[in-house]
Amino acid sequence: xxxxxxxxxxxxxxxEVCGGAELHCRLVAEHLAKYLDVEALTTCALEHSPWDNHxxxxxxxxxxxxxxxxxxDRLRKHRAFDALSRKVFGGPHSYLDELDYVRMVGPHxxxxxxxxxxxxxxxxxxxxFTYQYFPTxxxxxxxxxxxxxxxxxxxxxxxxxxxxxxxxxxxxxxVYNTEAERDTVQWRFGNGRVPSVVVxxxxxxxxxxxDVAAFRRRHGLDGPFILSIGRVEPSKGSQALLDHxxxxxxxxxxxxxxxxxxxxxxxxxxxxPDVVPLGFVSDEEKFAGIAAGELVVLPSEYESLSMVNLxxxxxxxxxxxxxxCQVLKDNCRQANGGLYYTSQEEFAEALDLLxxxxxxxxxxxxxxxxxxxxxxxxxxxxxxxxxxxxxxTGV
Length: 395
Prior knowledge:
Blueprint: E1 5-9, H1 20-32, E2 37-43, E3 58-62, E4 65-70, H2 78-90, H3 95-105, H4 110-118, E5 125-129, H5 134-139, E6 147-150, E7 173-176, H6 179-189, E8 196-198, H7 212-219, E9 225-229, H8 238-250, E10 258-262, E11 275-279, H9 283-292, E12 295-298, H10 307-314, E13 319-322, H11 326-335, E14 338-341, H12 344-356, H13 358-375, H14 378-393
Parallel strand pairs: 1-2, 1-5, 2-4, 5-6, 6-7, 7-8, 9-10, 9-12, 10-11, 12-13, 13-14
Antiparallel strand pairs: 3-4
Helix pairs in contact: 2-3, 7-9, 10-13
């Protein structure tokens, strides 16, 4: 039987790319490459701002997946982008303003769109990852009859924009990460008629146990620390986390405790001995940090499914999550693998409780590990994707 040819369309793709949705896409593509002819169609960008051409255009192979990268047409101009953002989200504006906004959101690549138009019949299915960006908003309408969407949507201001309506009505299938994400999207867009499935993803633990002592030596961490992983920027909750942590320490709590930040910084980080920014790190270093820390903090208010959440639990480490994110809150409740907060006071009380009891941390981490192994298993994820793909394209 001839193998199906599937293209994953995503704004960035690469081992060095730091982004939950992009990692999600790469892992799914790599796992499905065992059964299908899988390609990734993406841009030459590494960073989401200003979307410069970091990688050369053309073909590359990453972990068994053929990656086709296309040049970007323009950088994001921050002053114009900020002005248009204020207009779109803060006052009267037109549909054309929203289209211009998505063009500025980027990454803007007419070469990628041209490839979709030229090869629309060469692929059995195009799987678009994340709904917000230029490749999905302008690319999916070019191949609606052969499209599936993995929206990674959450209840943030973007979801209120009318420009995204077609994205949620045109595809033949929508793959949601969680029931909460599906309910949010169907409530907002009234697209319950579009076939959908809740799949999510899985994560993989390192093949060998991380060297915790070596990690601590490398970064001068000889006491307790909590860890936050991902881009360091206000939209990811980083500023609020720093504010909470600094107020917590200035109140005389958490003696010797440090906050370790893993991820590229897009905002100023205060220079303090108890705040340790490590920048972008390898997967090996990330898992070593998870294993070495007391717990992982999930500060983002907007998540459709947190890969970091699953990675922490897979390592048997509890989480402290932003309870304003319904997905994180639901996961903490369902797994009984962590606590959540919605205010400075709740952050401080939950952190005190977790730091005071190693036994509680072990219990929550173990419950989280069992939850991930039970619900987010790669065999189940692969099966659900394959069933959906073959139903759409024929066996």
